[in-house]
Amino acid sequence: MATVSHQEVGYEDVAGSGWLTFAASMLGLVGILSVIDGIVALSKARFYVAGATYVFSDLRTWGWITLILGIVCILAAGGVLAGSQWARWFGMFAAGLNLIAQFGFVQAYPFWTLIIIAIDILVIYALAVYGGRRTT
Q1: What are the distances in angstroms from CA 97 to CA 22, 44, 54, 93?
Q2: Of the candidates 6, 24, 51, 70, which lies 20 to 30 Å from 91 by C-alpha distance?
Q3: pTM, 2 dp
Q4: Which helix (H) or strand (E) holds 103?
Q5: Model confidence pLDDT, tens digit, residues 73-85
């Protein structure tokens, strides 16, 4: 049975490369779900909790913020999948911004927002745990 070295796989740390794949997948998922949340908030506000009050502005404003951050998360996921080191840091930043924005959106759809926040925390953890650089 042949063994594969770390260099042949393309990463210095084979165990950490799985975290990158997980983080990119989850970041892409969070991005897609945030884009859907933003579009729904902009087009069909009756879907969300009626009579919710927001600390900052209204549901349409949070819809735009969520939509834009969803696009940013999708772009960060693509960068992480491409193996870029700066995209790892950009992904942590994008997930952190999305996490903060979801706290503002929690009045509209509480349970769903808590799920997105949990995924954002997992993404930040997964991107922070991996410390190796891609060698190819």
Answers
A1: 19, 24, 18, 6
A2: 6
A3: 0.77
A4: helix 85-105
A5: 999 999 988 888 8
Helix (H, G, I), strand (E, B), or coil: what is residue 11? strand
Q: Dihedral, CA atoms, 118, 124, 126, 132, nearest 10 degrees?
A: 180
Instruction: Assign residue 5 a region (left: φ > 0; alpha: ψ between -120 and 50; beta: otherwise).
Output: beta
For 27-66, the pLDDT digits (tens) are 999 999 889 888 887 886 666 666 666 666 677 787 888 8
Amino acid residing at 107: Q
Rounded (5°) CA angle 9-13-17: 70
Structure tokens at 84: 């870029």
